[in-house]
Amino acid sequence: MSELAPEIVWAHVNRISQSRMFVDSERLRRFLAFTVESKLRGDASDIKEYAIGRQVFDRDRAYDPRVDPIVRVEARRLRTKLEEYYSGPGSGESLRIDYPRGSYVPEISAKASAHRLSYRILFLPPAIVAAIAVGFLGVRTGALNSSKPTLLAVMPAQWLFHQDDGLDPSAVGISEQLNVELAHRGAPNIAGWPIVQSRHHSIGDIRDLPRILSASRALAISVRRDEDTTIVTAFLIDATTGRKLRAAEVIDGRADTIWTQRIVARELAEQLRRYLH
């Protein structure tokens, strides 16, 4: 575990969150992100049923795990979905996350397939061994290159710039809906919303995104209101330079309910779709 760089782990979690097994299940994505975040911080001893109920499933202080089995039920679902992922679209992953029975602490490990391969090629002719070695090194180089920041992080502008300045808090809901909308539309490399949500407090400046979220671009959402008008703006920004690349805007778009936030998110996604691929 200690040998795995956090950015590699988070890139892995992002791929899981965007898979068909998880993209429609916010609860499981939050469960995964919260427990992985705690593990990477070295707070594994704090990953308890009560803490997960409060932090992931929004239970109040009166929550009693003995009466409300939500965490145990969702933990079983999470284990099942992870098995489906690793048996299907994640079969080629170099990492694996498991939750042992009776524990909510994730075990994050590198697969040992490369070592098994080395035993099988020991008795092959030298020319074939050399060819396989070159191919293996090429795969490893590709894997390392893939760890470079490539994700798009969707978030409220106030999370990114730490300036409320009249911005409406409904930007949080629109950001979440836009994250889901882009994932459904097949936009590549979208940072999972639970991960963005759990790590945004660590962002001091937009230039922190490559290190904290492996994101090379940000989509910052702002909502401004007056008595008669609501304006929702999405700014596409290069995380390495801070330069604004593109903007989309919805005027008079109500954003005070989940349904209206979803409508606004769809309109923004449609305006930006050609710039996100």
Q: Topology of this protein?
A:
Blueprint: H1 6-18, H2 26-41, H3 49-55, H4 70-87, E1 95-98, E2 107-110, H5 113-120, H6 126-145, E3 151-156, H7 157-161, H8 171-184, H9 193-199, H10 209-213, E4 215-225, E5 230-238, E6 244-251, H11 258-272
Parallel strand pairs: 3-4
Antiparallel strand pairs: 1-2, 4-5, 5-6
Helix pairs in contact: 1-2, 2-4, 2-9, 8-11
Strand order across the largest sheet: 3-4-5-6
Indicate the mean pLDDT: 80
Helix/sheet category: alpha+beta
Number of domains: 3
Oligomer: single chain
Radius of gyration: 21 Å
Measured by DSSP, the beta-strand proportion falls in 15-25%
Please give a handful of descriptors for the protein shown.
277 residues, alpha+beta, Rossmann fold, 3 domains, 4-stranded mixed sheet, two-stranded antiparallel sheet, 11 helices, 6 strands
Characterize this entry briefly:
The chain has 277 residues and is of the alpha+beta class. Helices cover 46% and strands 15% of the residues. The chain folds into three domains: 6-110; 113-145; 151-275, Rossmann fold, CATH 3.40.50.
Protein described:
With 277 residues, this protein is α+β, with helices and mostly antiparallel strands. Helix content is 46%, strand content 15%. Mean pLDDT is 80; it is low at 113-124 and 127-146.
